[in-house]
Amino acid sequence: MANFGTRRGFFAWTKNALAAAGVLNVAPGQAVAATLPATDYYDKLGVAKIINAAGTYTALTASIMPPSVQAAVAGAARHPVRLAELQKRAGEYIAGRLKCEAALVTSGASGSLTLGTAACMILGNRAATRLLPLEVSTLKNEVIIQKAHRFGYDQAIRNCGTRFVEVETLAQYEAAFTDRTVMCMFYNAAEGGQITREQWIAVAHRHGVPCLNDAAADVPPISNLWNYTGMGFDLVAFSGGKGLRGPQNAGLLLGRKDLIEAATWNNSPNSDTVGRGLKVAKEQIVGMVAAVDWILAQSDDSMRAECRQRAERIAALLRDVPTLSHEIFMPPVANAVPHLVLRYDAATVGKTPLQVSEILRSGSPSIELNPSTGRKSGSAGLPDAEDAIVVGVWMLQPGEDMIVARRLRDALLKA
Ligand SMILES: *Cc1c(COP(=O)(O)O)cnc(C)c1O
Predict the structure, then answer these.
(1) Cα(238) to centroid(ligand 1), Å
(2) Interatomic CA distance for residues 367 and 150, integer angstroms
(3) Counting Cβ atoms within 10 Å, is residue 221 exposed (0-12), middle (13-18) or buried (19+)?
(4) Whose CA is nearest to atom 8 of ligand 1?
(5) Is residue 217 in contact with ligand 1, taking CB distance under 6 Å?
(6) What pTM was computed for the model?
(7) Of 262, 362, 378, 390, which sits most exposed with the smallest number of CB within 10 A?
């Protein structure tokens, strides 16, 4: 992981490690050459800087942008440009790199869902933008979805004035189309549902209806950035601030050229549209482009190997905790990177997983473990962990794995 081959590599690593240990007052992971801000506003505001051993959770500010993305954001802040030109060029560049017809930088996957739905509703009828969300009686507004795909982001679709039509079997799906069907919605990481992606697309297209796939948290693997558009989904939504490590308030909407154009009609800066509040500033648009460049320069194998090494290092320090065993678990679709799952007998150790998670949270620096810790049903593809601690290692900064390991060791071994 650390590059000791050059002076610069060594200093960057040392600085990261010291920063991670809280010795230096710089953000861990920051490039050694980066200029430091004059004021640390987190300190000024009294906001705790945490160690993220959870994952890309929005409530924990999800991910830290790599240095190249931070630099792109800072560079974009220095010049005004014409927003429409930036949106267009960024979209064309991203579409080229991600092998799809067209792309739009949105305010996040949730914003992509709203703009994608709005696009399907007003395709070929730009004047209809201002009818959304309440005056939709003259527009198609039925969205077909599998019952098992209803999820926590339904509202982003309903914001356009749509109504969900739920189906379970393929026969019900075939029968659900009416002259008001506007879109077929697919939740990529859904854990249930009988109808496959390929069937979902084939039936929708036979009825001339576009399909939107929400794959927000489903990078890595990197190839998912073109797999779903390649498979035939007309629109695909990704979060910019999760595995892509772009700005937290950015995302991608990828897909058909006519639909992406219709999405922009509903987007900022167009006033009186459903997306005017989903503004993306020049800094985030450029940051998203840089994040696409960054992710395409990574490899799934090395990202996974790095996560595995972190997990093994933490587990190794906990080897003598009574009854403890560990497993490295990779969720199948969303958050598909190795996570560390630590199982032990709480009665023997004297602390439940939830108590351990509270001890780490209230210590200094404050550490957030994965929210599946101590819970009966794991979040986003993670295993049930009522009797387990789940460490999301992928958002840790260099050196933080050992801090988490030592703090877990203290919590589990000290009375
Ligand atoms: C995180 C997530 C979203 C929202 O993504 P943002 O980029 O924060 O808007 C939407 N759908 C799913 C499935 C997600 O996991």
Answers:
(1) 7
(2) 32
(3) middle
(4) 108
(5) yes
(6) 0.91
(7) 362
